[in-house]
Structure formats: C-alpha cells, structure tokens
Amino acid sequence: MSGEVSRNAVASKQNLRRYLSRFTMQFPTEVKMQNTSNKPAFHYLGQLKTLPLFESLAIDHPKSFDSTASFTNLMWPDGNDRFGESVQSYSELVTELDRIVARMLFESYGVGYYYDYYSKNTNYLLRYFKYNEPMMEQNNAGILPHTDKTFFSIVHQGNISGLLVKVKDDQWVEVPPSPTSFVVMAGDALMAWSNDRIPSCYHQVILKEKGTRYSLGILFH
Questions:
Q1: Which is a Pfam family this sequence falls into (predicted)?
Q2: Is the pTM of this model over 0.90?
Q3: What is the pLDDT of residue 147?
C-alpha cells in the first residue's frame, strides 16, 4: 500500500471514526435497528444477551452513492453529505488495498489471470463496531472466537486494544491498535479457494482497557 493511499485512508478513517464515536453509535436503539437487510448478517447487530458489549452497523456496497445515501438518510433525515463522502472515500481506498493484496496472492499461486474476474465480482460490506467498556463483574468478551465467511476482512482499529488472533500453536496473540495500519485476515472463502493452504483467521475481542472500543471493518464477499 503506497504512503499516499495510506495517508488518505487514515484521514478518511479518522473522519469516519469521529462520526462513529460521537454520532452514529449514539443514536437511539430503535433508529439503529432500522439498519436492516434481506441478507443474513448484513444489518444492525446488537442488544444480544450473549454479547451485551457488542454493537455493529452495516453498509452494503459502501462505494455506491445510493447505498451510502440510504444509510445516511436513515441516521440523518436532514442529510449529512460529509459522512457519505467519508464513507465512499474510505471504502475506495481500503478496497484498493484489497486489490493489491489479491493481485499479489493470485500471482504467487500462478493464477494471476484470475484477478480480473475476482476484481469484477467482489462485493464489499462496511461495518462499524462498538464495544462498550465492561462494567464491574461483567464478562469482558467483546465478541467470541470465530472466523469470517469472507475472502478477506480488513480491520482498522481505534485507540483501544482488544483484538486477538489465533496463531499456529493455538496461542492467542493481541494485535495492538495503530492509526496507520490495517489488519488483513483470511476468511473461509479464501481457505476454500486455496484448498486449505491458507487457513481462516480465528479472532476475537477481549476488552481489558478502560474506554469504549471502536473499529471499522470492510468485508470482501
């Protein structure tokens, strides 16, 4: 990823994070629950008894003006052009990172010709994640161990740590947050495509720091 792309992505991410922490996730639950979809898991997730600290909003096809406008109008009926522009800008830049990683992957396997098909047929889902600070005697699990169904997942963390990934010896390793880096994780679709040579990345969120954790994720499906 070039330095220019990285700087632009970080700037766009900071704008989105500002909306995420100060506005979007602070809307009443009944408003957030209007973030619906006819696709499984492409909608608002939250208010779960098993994961009381976790909330997530979703925008399918975040590079599309119509998709971002639909979400924006849901949250801000009077409009919020800056938010929509930040979503599209950030999504364009992070999907460029996906294209770079995908091209390198296909070429390393000697199937570079597959890249164009992948690029034309890949869809994107942008997710905002919020993990509330656990209260006294409350379980600190933000989200339980799992893999994503995606080809790739790219996560951009805020300032609060908590993301852990499982490595080959079955140990959990914390991925420290950084405003200038992304976490690229293989999903189940990539594992199937590579005939299990690239395993899905098991990950979870455990909240140990004080404060609310925010992060952004783009899922490639």
A1: 2OG-FeII_Oxy
A2: no
A3: 98
Q: How far apart are CA 95 and CA 64, in angstroms?
A: 13
DSSP state of 54: E
Listed range (25-29, 120-124, 149-153) with the worst mean pLDDT: 25-29
Please report the pLDDT score of residue 148 as a whole number: 96
- Residues 200 and 190 sit within 8 Å (Cβ to Cβ): yes
Distances (CA, A) of 67 to 84, 87, 131, 183, 189: 9, 10, 25, 25, 24
**SS3 sequence of 111-168:** CHHHHHHHHHHCCEEEEEEEECCCCCCCCCEEEEEECCCCCEEEEEECCCCCEEEECC
Domains contained in the chain, CATH given:
3-220 (2.60.120.330)
Strands 124-131, 141-146: parallel, antiparallel or unpaired by DSSP? Answer: unpaired
